Amino acid sequence: TASRNEPGALVCIVDVVGCRDATPSDSLAACFEIEDGDEFWAIELRNPRPVVRARVKGQQWLYNVSEFCPM
Predict the structure, then answer these.
(1) Which of 49, 53, 51, 56 is CA-nearest to residue 1?
(2) Can you spell out the DSSP letters for 13-39?
(3) Fewer CB within 10 A of the end CB, N or C, for the chain?
């Protein structure tokens, strides 16, 4: 298993419900300053569900986690 703060760890499953242009009001949630005209995306997530922590090899991305969490 992976620890809470360790990079490359699966920590929860969420539902992706939207994707839109990021705005300055997204700065707090993004943990960095977003200014008007910046070209960032805001991915809207809902329904977080914790899972048994597991290592995930790869880069930041959205993963299909069915191998970790059979439904």
Answers:
(1) 53
(2) EEEEEEEEE--GGGHHHHTS---TT--
(3) C
Full-prediction pTM beyond 0.85?
no
Provide the token pair at 54: 């597991």
Low-confidence ranges of the chain (pLDDT < 70): 1-8, 57-71
CB 8 within 8 A of CB 55: yes
Position 35, amino acid: E
